[in-house]
Amino acid sequence: MVRFTANPVRALAGTDPGRTRLLNASGVAVAVLISTGCAWLIVNATHADGGYLAVGAFLAMQAGLSVRDATAPARLVTTALLVIPVVGGLAGTTLLAHNRYAEIAAFVMIGGVATWMRRFGPRWSAVGMIAFFSSFFALFLRPTVDDLGPLLLIGVGAVAASLIVKSTMLLHAPDRSLRLLMRQFRGAGDAAVRAAEGSV
């Protein structure tokens, strides 16, 4: 005789990877939206190049996708550290713009170092990746020294948007984990009762 549980959700309560992926994707999307809004305000206030909007959106997306530390507090620390490669990549490449060969050589070197840093774990992999993309945008958009101020504000805003979203998600993480554990406990209880009934 086949027995069906009264609450089928409990039978699948062990893991929910689809929900986790949806939550992470939603967090990245919100960070991109916040960053793009901040970039739009900065561009309009400073009359900077409209192409800088892409910097805010893309760096926020990369800050959300490249940070893959094992714990939520570690992800917060890594996200905060991304300010350093963002500022360094944008400023360094912009200041080298007067010497095209030095600019390209620095970009190639950053790409090599970013690849090498992956061996040291997810934190340094994220730092290297963000440094590479920051340098790429500065190399592609060719900002002047006068444009560096707004561009740096946009880059820092992208990291700040990702940090705010990750902090908000961390505040709700204990409640979500507790609910998941309770569902797992109830599911295990249902399985134990069914096993006991079957052995009688």
Describe it.
This protein is an all-alpha fold. It has one domain (17-160). 81% of the residues lie in helices and 0% in strands. The chain has 8 helices and no strands.
What layout of secondary structure does this protein have?
Layout (H helix, E strand, L loop, with lengths): L7 H4 L5 H30 L5 H15 L5 H10 L1 H13 L4 H18 L4 H20 L6 H52 L1
Helix pairs in contact: 2-3, 2-8, 3-7, 3-8, 4-7, 4-8, 5-7, 5-8, 6-7
What features would you highlight for this structure?
200 residues; mainly alpha; 8 helices
Largest sheet: none
Q: Gap between N and C termini, in Å? A: 14 Å
Count the helices. How many? Answer: 8
Q: Write down the domain tally.
A: 1
Q: What is the radius of gyration computed over CA atoms, rounded to a whole number of angstroms?
A: 23 Å
Low-confidence stretches: 1-6, 10-14
Write down the secondary-structure element order: HHHHHHHH
- What structural category arises from helix and sheet content? mainly alpha
What is the total tally of β strands?
0
In terms of DSSP E residues, the strand content is under 5%
What's the overall geometry? Answer: elongated
Secondary structure: helix percent: over 70%
Task: Look at the structure and give the mean pLDDT.
Answer: 83
Quick summary:
The protein is mostly helical and 200 residues long.
